């Protein structure tokens, strides 16, 4: 059993359905996140990507199907229990506390309240602006800097799985390139990553595997490189060509 957990996918969704009030949003989502590397979750707007992430985290409850993390069924677990198990979640809305300093935001993200100095130095190497604004309120940061802080909060402690929802949305090209560098560096660590992203240059640059959603269903899974090289498949699944978004 231990060997199977060590080599099998870190996360697996099987037939996941989610209702929000009277609305049936997910209609049987199934895909895997292999250990190590980056899995992209792609799809048109409204395909159900964010709902999938929130269902994994227990913020919305799956009405059918299973979510398995590191060999354990977490479908009915609470959000705090899921986070405690080793999953960090960065939502699309940049979850930072604007009235607190950057330092205070980071200390809150550390489960013990104490930050490992070597890990903090590692975070500063990826996000030097956070060191510059360490004692400033997070509310004065730019949109790109707030996104950096949001990601930094998620990685200030080691996690097995990092789930990130559109980290480059609304960011300038230079900041996007920095994010690409960050996720490439994260790939060299032991963390596995599930990443929703609309910037297809980012998706192609960092993605190893991909799951594509449409209308609350999984319509394709495979290697990101294979999708990036197949214009016809891109048009079929996404309604556009990645080549037009370099």
Automatic annotation (TrEMBL):
<dbReference type="InterPro" id="IPR027417">
    <property type="entry name" value="P-loop_NTPase"/>
</dbReference>
<protein>
    <submittedName>
        <fullName>ABC transporter ATP-binding protein</fullName>
    </submittedName>
</protein>
<keyword id="KW-0029">Amino-acid transport</keyword>
<keyword id="KW-0997">Cell inner membrane</keyword>
<dbReference type="GO" id="GO:0015807">
    <property type="term" value="P:L-amino acid transport"/>
</dbReference>
<comment type="similarity">
    <text>Belongs to the ABC transporter superfamily.</text>
</comment>
<keyword id="KW-0067">ATP-binding</keyword>
<dbReference type="GO" id="GO:0016887">
    <property type="term" value="F:ATP hydrolysis activity"/>
</dbReference>
<dbReference type="GO" id="GO:0015658">
    <property type="term" value="F:branched-chain amino acid transmembrane transporter activity"/>
</dbReference>
<keyword id="KW-0547">Nucleotide-binding</keyword>
<keyword id="KW-0813">Transport</keyword>
<dbReference type="InterPro" id="IPR003439">
    <property type="entry name" value="ABC_transporter-like_ATP-bd"/>
</dbReference>
<keyword id="KW-0472">Membrane</keyword>
<dbReference type="InterPro" id="IPR003593">
    <property type="entry name" value="AAA+_ATPase"/>
</dbReference>
<dbReference type="GO" id="GO:0005524">
    <property type="term" value="F:ATP binding"/>
</dbReference>
<dbReference type="InterPro" id="IPR052156">
    <property type="entry name" value="BCAA_Transport_ATP-bd_LivF"/>
</dbReference>
<keyword id="KW-1003">Cell membrane</keyword>
<dbReference type="Pfam" id="PF00005">
    <property type="entry name" value="ABC_tran"/>
</dbReference>
<feature type="domain" description="ABC transporter">
    <location>
        <begin position="11"/>
        <end position="240"/>
    </location>
</feature>
<dbReference type="InterPro" id="IPR017871">
    <property type="entry name" value="ABC_transporter-like_CS"/>
</dbReference>
């Amino acid at each position: 059993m231990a060997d199977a957990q060590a080599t099998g996918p870190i996360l697996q969704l099987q037939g996941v359905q989610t209702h929000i009030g009277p609305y049936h949003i997910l209609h049987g989502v199934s895909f895997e996140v292999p250990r190590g590397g980056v899995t992209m979750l792609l799809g048109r707007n409204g395909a159900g990507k964010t709902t999938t992430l929130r269902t994994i985290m227990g913020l919305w409850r799956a009405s059918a199907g299973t979510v398995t993390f590191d060999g354990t069924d977490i479908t009915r677990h609470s959000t705090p229990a899921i986070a405690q198990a080793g999953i960090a979640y960065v939502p699309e809305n940049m979850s930072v506390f604007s009235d607190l300093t950057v330092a205070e935001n980071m200390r809150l993200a550390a489960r013990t309240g104490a930050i490992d100095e070597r890990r903090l130095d590692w975070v500063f190497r990826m996000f030097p602006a956070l060191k510059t604004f360490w004692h400033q309120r997070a509310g004065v940061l730019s949109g790109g800097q707030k996104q950096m802080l949001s990601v930094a909060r998620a990685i200030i402690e080691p996690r097995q799985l990092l789930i990130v929802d559109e980290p480059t949305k609304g960011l300038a090209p230079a900041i996007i390139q920095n994010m690409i560098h960050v996720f490439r560096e994260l790939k060299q660590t032991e963390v596995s990553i599930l990443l929703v992203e609309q910037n297809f240059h980012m998706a192609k640059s960092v993605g190893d595997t991909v799951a594509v959603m449409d209308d609350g269903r999984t319509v394709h899974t495979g290697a990101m490189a294979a999708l990036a090289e197949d214009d016809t498949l891109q048009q079929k699944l996404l309604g556009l060509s990645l080549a037009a978004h370099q």
